[in-house]
């Protein structure tokens, strides 16, 4: 199931809020998290909350939409909404996803959302992962990849060992080996995956990580030796 993207509307016109709220609620890929009627409200909200997508008006009192983008260190992905086309060229200097001219029609709104989702997909595919998201005791948690020492099969579950804690999640070793980056992790036994850079000692039939002996399967010995050779 795809998690809806959290959106925020920043516009001083109630009519614009009405239209965008209606459009967002018709799209199951989006979730309206907040509505702000000026840049100050938006600035306060964004300092305390994580938002995926911002629908931002340009012409607002006190602080304009472009000034808000300049103020934010890490602004969310932004779709500008305005009645003034003369700002279009300048707006793209801020890395905005799209520029919607008011009145905003639903087909044009959908096209803009598709553009946003395609950018998200490309970024996800090219991003270097830094954590592993798993479900533990019914809650999704992120485990930093650098903290993982090794993984052990546990029936239809796996145990993920870090120095601080052991996590148990409903996955198989085969599934997990697909999730972990192959440049940092390697399967060394039918029941074990290890973090290569966490190896303390390496013998013919076992590996030592954090004083724990981990069996080394015959079929994995050659590959491990080849991968460790440049490190020696």
TrEMBL record:
Keywords: Phosphoprotein. The modification 4-aspartylphosphate is found at residue 57. This is Response regulator transcription factor. SUPFAM superfamilies: CheY-like. GO terms for molecular function: DNA binding; phosphorelay response regulator activity. Residues 6-117 form the Response regulatory domain. InterPro entries: CheY-like_superfamily, LytR-like, LytTR_DNA-bd_dom, Sig_transdc_resp-reg_receiver. Residues 132-230 form the HTH LytTR-type domain. SMART domains: LytTR, REC. Coiled coil: none annotated.
